[in-house]
Design goal:
Length: 197
């Protein structure tokens, strides 16, 4: 459980930072928000997080595009059922594809674009009540570490944005960042390094 929590949290932080480097105006807006809320203090603290609405929308957008566990924990049906016209017999192992749900064009305009603003005036959240965004699953079998993970991710991201100015090394273009995902238990970038200075 601890390994799953640390690997998935670090993976989503890497994805969010990569998206921010690819979208410098979003990063600038987030840094401005964080620095205004913190007002000259050395680090972002837990009591600042509730005031960082844009940062929270960045985390939601990162989770939408890059859920840490794209195929949620498998479930087994207890009874025969039908989903969208497909018959699923009892005792069938079912995987929920959180990645496909988070990029379904039926619910998301510009589904593959990193646009945190979509969450600023939206009630859609990742806590299992809105089925168009399920990075942690839903119901009684949802991720037990969700609240802890979100706090850690928001706090780490806020401090990274507060303390450092991020940019790509000279000669590397944003379009050159490899955003292809590697296949595995949780979502990681194919390239294990993210160049920054």
């Amino acid at each position: 459980m601890f390994i799953a929590g640390s690997n998935t949290s670090s993976a989503i932080l890497v994805w969010i930072m990569a998206e921010l480097i690819r979208n410098p105006s979003v990063m600038q807006r987030a840094q401005t928000e964080v620095r205004e809320v913190v007002k000259g203090k050395a680090k972002v603290e837990e009591n600042h997080i509730s005031k960082l609405m844009y940062l929270k929308s960045i985390v939601k957008e990162g989770l939408r595009l890059h859920p840490p566990a794209p195929l949620l924990v498998p479930r087994e049906t207890t009874d025969d059922c039908a989903v969208e016209g497909y018959h699923i017999p009892a005792k069938t192992r079912v995987f929920v594809n959180a990645k496909s749900i988070g990029t379904d064009p039926k619910y998301w305009k510009n589904k593959n674009e990193f646009q945190p603003e979509r969450f600023l005036d939206s009630s859609v959240d990742f806590r299992g009540q809105h089925f168009e965004l399920l990075p942690f699953g839903a119901g009684r079998r949802g991720c037990p570490g969700m609240n802890f993970a979100i706090l850690i991710i928001e706090l780490a991201l806020a401090n990274l944005l507060h303390r450092f100015d991020w940019e790509l090394p000279h000669g590397i273009r944003r379009q050159d960042l490899d955003m292809e995902e590697a296949i595995g238990l949780y979502s990681t970038q194919k390239s294990s390094t993210l160049p920054c200075s």
